[in-house]
Amino acid sequence: MALRADFYGLILCTGEHALLSMFEVLACYKLQSAPPLEELPWLLVFAPLFALSLLSIVVAIWAIRHDKSFEFELFFSINVVEFVFLAFKLDTTLDWHWAIVFIPLWVVLSLSVVGVLYALVLAVVLARSVHMLASQRRQHLYSALCHTLLVIPILIFLLLLTGKLDAVAWSDSEPVTQVPYIVVCTPLIISLVCLVLMSFGARGGNPWWFAMRAPFCTFLLETCPCLKQYANLSYKFGASSDRDSASADAERQSLRSDPSAKIPLRPIIPIRSIESPD
């Protein structure tokens, strides 16, 4: 049953990444070739994301039933309305401010900020608790800090991006229009770096690479048995000094001249059995 669930998980993950790759190809073609809006509207470019969002809802339900991780699917499931707003805004079907277009993101980030504040308060309360181990208290504190570094920069990025896009779209002579996009995207880069660092210790999902059903190092050693021969050997690179070579030669010569030195003498300790009285 576990093998079948992992196999279905790999198939669903392949389908999700195929839809995501299709969206990337269409977006690159749209941005690079700049075809007319009637030939390739943005609504058609976002069609793979719409399908991916609907598929992610099904996959998330399946992942909950089979105890699998669904962070990837959760992101697309909760942002399906945002994708629709972006497609209509880029097609100039909606003449809204970008602050209104980003309302679904505002809602998601507001809930995330509430969750981060709750995690920080909980970490502070647990840090003063004497009924938990120190490692558990540190784990709660590190988790709260990491999620804070993940959510707050994204919120700052969305604020800067919204102000810049609205100022550019409505030709306002505000200082925010002079802010380069590299400065606007810097908080997003910080959040992505934090997310990458958090993923190193993440668990769940399919723990095996490409359905190996074994850790990578174990699989590599079983595939290449010759590596087992050198796995437990220590190597020292670099030329040895004259002093080290002279001491090694002297030790080798002393072992040859004195046979008793090869086997060190150890005192014989008699075996005693001390029984405790009843």
UniProtKB/TrEMBL annotation:
Signal recorded as keyword: no
Top-level taxonomic group: Eukaryota
Localization annotation: Membrane
Region (Disordered): 248-278
Transmembrane intervals: 40-62, 74-90, 96-129, 141-161, 181-202
Chief location bin: membrane
Residue stretches of biased makeup (Low complexity): 263-278
Keyword vocabulary terms for this entry: Membrane, Transmembrane, Transmembrane helix
Membrane topology listed for this record: Multi-pass membrane protein
CC terms in the record's Gene Ontology section: membrane
Classification via InterPro entries: MetI-like_sf, TM_Fragile-X-F-assoc
PANTHER family reported in the protein's UniProt record: FAM11A, B PROTEIN, TRANSMEMBRANE PROTEIN 185A
Protein name stated in the entry: Transmembrane protein 185B
Organism of this sequence: Toxocara canis (Canine roundworm)
